[in-house]
Known about the structure:
Elements: H1 3-12, E1 16-22, E2 37-38, E3 41-42, H2 43-52, E4 57-64, H3 69-78, E5 84-89, H4 94-102, E6 112-116, H5 124-137, E7 139-145, E8 151-154, E9 157-161, E10 168-170, E11 174-176, H6 178-190, H7 198-203, E12 210-213, H8 224-236
Parallel strand pairs: 1-4, 1-6, 4-5, 7-12
Antiparallel strand pairs: 2-3, 6-11, 7-10, 7-11, 8-9
Helix pairs in contact: 1-5, 4-6
Amino acid sequence: MSKVSDLIRRAKNTTCSAVVVAAGSSLRMGEDKLFMPLEGIPVLARTLMALNGCGCVEEIVLVVRPDRLEQAAKLCRDYGALKVKKVVCGGSTRNASALAGLVQIRRGARIVIIHDGARPLVTEEVVWKAVHGAALYKCAAPAVPVTDTVKETQGETVIRTLERSRLAAIQTPQAFQPDLIKAALTRALREGKEYTDDCAAAEAMGIPVRLTEGSPENIKITRPLDMQTASAILRSRGG
């Protein structure tokens, strides 16, 4: 067996730890979206159940606001998210919360994924492809093509139209070698920088991000309309 094929074989068999970031304030929703019912089950519970059912996920570290610790722990018990090994407090920013979870994963983890608690419709296929990508390329993120025309603006004026074929919408889970992303987020916090996703912290260190296949259904619950869309997707899946 060649070195390349052996590397691919081992990458396909890679397991991971998962950090679920759920410490946001949900300002755009108007209430804590993570505990809102989505077809009768809280959004966060659906997210944890999805990851709990992934064969490649060995453990989950859940990061929440301090005032949600007890409620989150009870939710894990109520919905059988047995892979959640720790529920910890997040930081004042998303990057700080991600790092708070990363330092709690098990020693020896080869790959770690960081997932938004507000993406309850993630599938095992999307997770596995990201994990596989990180096993081969150190850093990977699921992406879907941008279908709308995107324009760069300044106030209410269009500056230029961006080339759509070169744009991608990035999702989570984003997958990394643990030491790499820990170093990237530590550096970001030290320099006072806040990135909208974890891959951006890796990019700032000159580390290329490998894109893997995402899903149009892997939406992030941000606004009330997203709940309606997520409900429709769940019903199309049969609940």
